[in-house]
Amino acid sequence: MTIKGAADDRRPFPAPLEPAREAFFIGRLKTEQAGEAKAILIEHNLGLVVYIAKRFYNTGVGLEDLTSVGAIGLVKAVNTFDPVKKIKLATYASRCIENEILMYLRRSLKERREISLEEPFQVDKEGKTQLLGEVLGTEEDVVSRHLEEELELARLKKAVSSLSQREQTMIRLRFGFDSRDEKEKT
């Protein structure tokens, strides 16, 4: 069986397990056959990884990379899954996969020079496009703080320029915004 939209659209993935079979393998996670059970659970949930990775496709990271990172999240999910908590493996794995991809994207954002927080980031369940700033939880005032500081400094310099030369010197020396300091910062 081929899942349409796989990383290369040719890679066959096994169908998701039926609930009874999934429960059987989940039950074997704490036994001697845990390795085999984990392998089967991971293999049958790879389609979920691709599905979630496709939601992050417009981040500038290739689908293959997103799928690889998502697979790491799936492995972590299977390794840490606790059936006692009465949650489906797919639900738990979805969060783990998504979190792993988000962590990867945050790490890779540090390497990128410029990126707009208004850039579309992912499409949520309702089909609404979320912006990068919304996903990262960045508040608007934090983002624009640098620009506001520059504007405030310009207004302050204008106000100081209306003072006498002696007053200007006193203010600059007292508060430390000497023009030499400004040149060193740039």
Automatic annotation (TrEMBL):
GO terms for molecular function: DNA binding; sigma factor activity. Pfam families: Sigma70_r2. Keywords: DNA-binding, Sigma factor, Transcription, Transcription regulation. Residues 41-107 form the RNA polymerase sigma-70 region domain. GO terms for biological process: DNA-templated transcription initiation. Belongs to the sigma-70 factor family. This is RNA polymerase, sigma 29 subunit, SigE. It comes from gut metagenome.
